[in-house]
């Protein structure tokens, strides 16, 4: 089993920044990748960003490219999401996800474990 715990959410004004963190613990050997998804009220969960553990390749949803940056700390089994130029439409619960097997990392079914989520609210 792997546990993923997010932190760093909160309330910010439009144009501001937040940094989300996610720490994975448990059976973290052979991680394939980690990612972030979000779910706004009344909407489906959507992909935000992902990073491969070996090599560090990154992937982003078009809606966040150029504003968000994902990074990892392999020694800590942690992944971070730096969110800049935040917009009200970025308001959602953000979930960290852990993949232990091969996948494209941009769809939810590629992930094996999920965190509880952290709320991000962007006011206009």
* Shape annotation: globular
The biggest sheet amounts to: 7 strands, mixed
Q: Structural class of the secondary elements?
A: mainly beta
Helical proportion?
under 10%
Strand content: over 45%
Question: How many β-strands, per DSSP?
Answer: 11
Low-confidence stretches: none
Order of helices and strands: EEEEEEEEEEE
Q: CA-to-CA gap between the ends?
A: 40 Å
Number of helices: 0
Give a nutshell description of this structure.
This protein is an all-beta fold and 124 residues long. It contains no helices and eleven strands.
Walk me through this protein's architecture.
The strands form two sheets. Strands 2, 4, 5, 6, 9, 10 and 11 form a seven-stranded mixed β-sheet that branches. A four-stranded antiparallel β-sheet has the order 1-3-8-7, with no helix packed on it. The protein is mostly beta strands and 124 residues long. It is built from no helices and eleven strands. Strand 7 (68-73) and strand 8 (78-83) form a beta hairpin.
Helices, strands, pairings?
Blueprint: E1 2-7, E2 10-13, E3 18-26, E4 33-39, E5 46-52, E6 58-60, E7 68-73, E8 78-83, E9 92-99, E10 113-114, E11 118-123
Parallel strand pairs: 2-11
Antiparallel strand pairs: 1-3, 3-8, 4-5, 4-9, 5-6, 7-8, 9-10, 9-11
List keywords for this structure.
mainly beta, seven-stranded mixed beta sheet, four-stranded antiparallel beta sheet, 124 residues
């Amino acid at each position: 089993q792997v546990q993923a715990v997010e932190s760093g959410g909160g309330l910010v004004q439009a144009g501001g920044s937040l940094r989300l963190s996610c720490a994975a613990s448990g059976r973290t050997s052979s991680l394939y990748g980690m990612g972030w998804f979000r779910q706004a009220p009344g909407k489906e969960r959507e992909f935000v960003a992902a990073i491969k553990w070996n090599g560090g390749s990154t992937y982003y949803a078009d809606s966040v490219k150029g504003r968000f940056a994902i990074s990892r700390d392999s020694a800590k089994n942690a992944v971070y999401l730096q969110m800049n130029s935040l917009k009200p439409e970025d308001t959602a619960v953000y979930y960290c996800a852990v993949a232990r097997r091969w996948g494209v990392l941009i769809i939810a079914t590629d992930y094996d474990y999920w965190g509880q989520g952290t709320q991000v609210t962007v006011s206009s």
